[in-house]
Amino acid sequence: MRLGLLPIVALMGCTQSGTLNEEPPAFALTLEVPSAGAFLGDVTVARVAGVVSPPTAEVLVEGVRVPVDAEGAFEAEVWLEDALRVDVQALYEGEELREHVSVFTGVDPLSSWPGALSARVTPSGLAGLGGLLGAYVDGLFEDAIPLGFLPSFSFGGVGFGVDSLTRGEIEVEVQPTDEGLVADVVIPDAALNMSLTGSVLGIPFTWPASIGMSELGIGGRVDLFLDEAGNLMLAFDEPDIVIGDPEIDFNVAGFGWLNSLLGNLVGGDGLLEGLLGAALADAPPIQVLQGPLAFEQDLLGMPLSLALTDFATDADGLGVQASVGMGEALPPSVTGDFPIPPGLPQVDLVLAAHEGLVQGLVGSSIVESLSGELPIEAFSGLLNIPMSNLPGGDQIPDNEGWCMMLDPGEARLGRFVSGLEPMASIFLPEAEVTMGLRIRGEAECQPWLQALVGVQLDVHADGTAISLDISMDDAFVLVYGAEDVDPVVVGDAFVGVLDGVLGLAGGFLSFDLGELLAGGGLPGMPGGDQEPAGDAAGLGDLLGLLDIRFVAAHRLEEEPFVGVELIGMDLFGEPVP
To answer: Can you tell me the distance from the alpha carbon of 84 to that of 530, in angstroms, rounded to the nearest whole number?
Structure first.
């Protein structure tokens, strides 16, 4: 996080001399620039300036002495990476004053946070979703689908109407075009079940009949939209009906003419195709998912919410916009308006995520959950050796092991990093680490060494696994139980101890995205026996069926995607050819 001090030239004046009877000036240090938590923009150095009293005091910035003028003013510049904890030290007649200020490059990610994200499902992703949608639609219907909306007819005193459709497993194919989605629904082994009614010699009759078809195909452009209740609806536009190899199952003596009529119904004149096409065109939209399409999940103590707000289609795929909420850190936007990203080859879905999401994580309970005592009990006894090797380590009293506490501090920065290793980084330049001793007879762990430490947490994505690796550097000792030691030397050596502790602890924090999304299940699908989470579980159910894997990530800095990461994902475990 820190690189070093840049030499600068300051105008110097003679120090003022006092009289013998004058009281010595109060020893004081004021740091004027930079201000705490400031975002410094597109710079590579940070300006450090302040005033020390008396002006004869020695000032060190980042451990390097800097000039002080006759008025006590000093100035320096330090190299700046993503985050920096500026350390300014004043020394005067055996006394010491110290100031710490954390600053960041760039702008605050939350200053342009849109409260939303967007995604594009590519053609390969739509091909996979078509299969998922077919299984979903198949699970919505019984083996016999009611078709009471089709009209009844009467001919020669005999009336007939279609009651239901029996079918094989429904298959769905979806392709994007500039005019919208084109969907083909194929129902194999379909049969229209009918009832014939009339009278013979005044005696009423009802006879069943059926028209079997090797295949019933329904194709055409479909529109996806959200209704007023937030339900995801599907409507056919100019549907095209295809009927294959009809077979009539009706053979009643004296009614051969009716058998011929039924044959003509599905024969060359295409009467049934016209009837079904007209009925579908006039039919109300079909509810695909119950709304509102809101997904809520507890992510390591932080409420995470996602609500779909709009859909758009072109030849590159289906675009989706969504509002995002992460507890109180990032409330969802009002409109969810955010540009839909371009497509990427060889992935099923491209997600455009603003780095305000990462900054929201920084301010959330996920980072807060790092606060407190860390789980090092399994190897705490082994820490006596590295802690004893620190300067003053021979003064460690007898103990029964060590404890370790972490306070993330208030200064925090989260940003995307182009790629998956890591995908994002979180900087905590003012984290406070305390190593304590467990003393026999003492109920609580007794602090031994307390230091301000620069902490970096890298978010890695591997398949469906999300891991958070932690590293520490730049330790400044606040409290140390040993006497007569140089705190700077102790701080430098303490960083090595921390690296060893983290190595023994292994992965600090991780979770599986697949397990996170696996809420309930859709009817008749894997996981369908699980209880759905929340009142509107339609979206959660659908997400729970996916096998999302991260494939690629690339950071953008061009309008309108400044500060946005394009994340490529496969939705079904392996790439769809």
So the answer is: 48
